[in-house]
Amino acid sequence: NETVTWSLGSGADTALFSLTGGVLSLAAAKNYEVDETTDHAYSVNVVATDSAGNATTQAVTVNLTDVNEAPTAAGTVTAQPAVNGQAYNLDVHTYFADVDTSAPNNTLTYSATGLPTGVTINPTTGVISGTATADRSASSVVVTATDGGNLSITQSFNLAVVSAPTVSSFTVADSTGTTTLGKSGEALSFV
Fold it and tell me: What is the C-alpha R_g of the chain?
C-alpha cells in the first residue's frame, strides 16, 4: 500500500488547471462559444509519484463540450398601441438573444399569449401581425422565445387597441379670414 501523490506536470495548458486530491479541475470556467481554442481541447500532463519517489507522467486531454444555454432578453419591449381595423406589425425577435452557436440550440421559436383577436405571432420569425377586431384597454402580452433544447425566456409588454380617430367637422379660412370661399393658389389655414 503505497501512497501516490498527484501533481501537474509541464505543458502549454497546465496553468489553466488545478489538481487537488486527485481531482483535475479547470482553474476558471470556460465558455464554449468564446473559447480561444479552435478544437475546444486542452492538454495537461499529470504526474503520479509514489512514496519511493518513482514518478510517471500521463498526458491528459480535456475536451470542452457545448451545453445549451437558455435564451436571454435583449432590451425591453415597450407598451404598444394598435388601431382597431388597421394592420398591426411588431417584430419581437430582436428583443431576444441566444449565445448558442450550433443547431438546434441556436434556433429560437416564438409564441405569445394575450394577443387581441385577429393578431398572431409567426413562430419562426417572431413577427406579431394582423388586424385587431375590437378595442381593448392596455393588456399584457407575454412572448416566449424557446430554443431547440427547449429552454426559454419570456418578455411581456402592454398592448392596447384603440379606435382610429375621426374628424367630425373642421373649418378652413383663407388669408382674409373668409370661411366661405377659398381661391385657387391662396394659403388656407384650419381654424
Answer: 33
CA–CA separation, 21 vs 118, rounded Å? 64
- pLDDT digits 0-9 by tens, 134-184: 999 999 999 999 999 999 999 999 999 999 888 777 777 767 777 666 667
Of 161, 132, 162, 127, nearest in space to 143 by CA: 127
